[in-house]
Amino acid sequence: MLSLGSGCVLHPRCSVRVAPGAALALGDGCVVEEDAVLSFSGPGLASVGAHTVFMVACRADLVPGEAVGAWCSFMPRSRVSGVRVGDQCTLSAGAALDAAHPALVGQVEGEGDGVVPALPPRTIIHGAANAARTWDAGGEAQERALRLSATEYLREVLPKFNKQRPA
């Protein structure tokens, strides 16, 4: 089952896969762009926080519980698997994050899977070596305003240029 918050934008060519008996909830204002893949194999419910953006061709294999926090960005071709992601985190273009990454200092109890590795809030994974750094939240208001205006633009433009065609 897929549950969408108000104002979510899903590109017609994105893929959201939820296993039978499992549920995925996207928060308000989330964006899933072209060729992005979100998958959740269960059990239970996985949730994605408000205003999170999954950009072109990124892949996210979600964990049960609060899988992704609010205001996160998954840049083009980034990948995350088996990890809980905190609020305001960014995976830069091509970055990969899995349970073996050294930046996973926090761990939280999963729903039925024991301990799930977690990425601390405001962490940025970047570069070919998938290095990690912490964002100091400088320019946070501008970042949020930019993200909101980009989401509003997609909400307006996608229906105009992605019409369903008869089979």
UniProtKB/TrEMBL annotation:
| Keyword entries, A-Z | Cytoplasm, Cytoskeleton
Q: Which residues form a coiled coil?
A: none
InterPro entries named among the record's database cross-references: DCTN6, Trimer_LpxA-like_sf
- Provide the protein's localization: Cytoplasm, Cytoskeleton
Mainly resides where? cytoplasm
Family the entry assigns:
Belongs to the dynactin subunits 5/6 family. Dynactin subunit 6 subfamily.
Annotated function: Part of the dynactin complex that activates the molecular motor dynein for ultra-processive transport along microtubules.
Q: Name the chain's protein.
A: Dynactin subunit 6
